[in-house]
């Protein structure tokens, strides 16, 4: 069985043609990308590394990592999103290898093949997030880095990430997130340890609506990112 929710896939496929519009539904990803890219690069030193972006969507993070000199492969299960990613790669001249496949079968095919694995803003959209974490741990080389980002599960995150972002400010389309699938940092840390990764850091991500900028924070109550390393 594929570790994917058909409803979630369709939701993002329907919006795929708007992925690279910085003022459309994926505007938050465009605004967040510099912060997450710099944070990932501060650990992984991306230039010259073989990198896998799991759940790459239209390729915003994939292209930006390739722009720093990484050899990037992006995988996703939405052919519409991958089509947009391929087209934008051709237009921008930034080369990324895209494939329609999920993390688990790729892990069986290419274990310990990547220096860096990223899986950002995806775990809260799949039925079995622990399975994705385990696949990412299998895909990375010993000593390599794995990065995740997701949403905490509590009243504050529900109010800000769902009610405020989707219904009040309309920063995201209604129904983007299912609160029941949000993941507490302690739960993700458990998935990470179970997969044989060591947890290096958990950083919160905050958003300033006045400056429209994201920033790293010690507050992981809503959005947060996790840096992990596979033991050498």
TrEMBL record:
Protein function: O-methyltransferase that catalyzes the 2 O-methylation steps in the ubiquinone biosynthetic pathway.
Class of this enzyme: transferase
GO MF, one annotated term: 3-demethylubiquinol 3-O-methyltransferase activity
Organism: Paraburkholderia denitrificans
EC number: 2.1.1.222, 2.1.1.64
Entry superkingdom: Bacteria
Keyword Transcription applies: no
One Pfam family cited in the UniProt record for this chain: Methyltransf_23
Annotated residues for binding of S-adenosyl-L-methionine: 36, 55, 76, 120
Assigned keywords, A-Z: Methyltransferase, S-adenosyl-L-methionine, Transferase, Ubiquinone biosynthesis
Family (UniProt): Belongs to the methyltransferase superfamily. UbiG/COQ3 family.
The reaction(s) this protein catalyses: a 3-demethylubiquinol + S-adenosyl-L-methionine = a ubiquinol + S-adenosyl-L-homocysteine + H(+); a 3-(all-trans-polyprenyl)benzene-1,2-diol + S-adenosyl-L-methionine = a 2-methoxy-6-(all-trans-polyprenyl)phenol + S-adenosyl-L-homocysteine + H(+)
Family matches, as HAMAP family: UbiG
PANTHER family: METHYLTRANSFERASE, UBIQUINONE BIOSYNTHESIS O-METHYLTRANSFERASE, MITOCHONDRIAL
InterPro entries documented for this protein: SAM-dependent_MTases_sf (IPR029063), UbiG_MeTrfase (IPR010233)
The protein's name in its UniProt record: Ubiquinone biosynthesis O-methyltransferase
GO BP: any one term: methylation
Pathway connected to this protein: Cofactor biosynthesis; ubiquinone biosynthesis
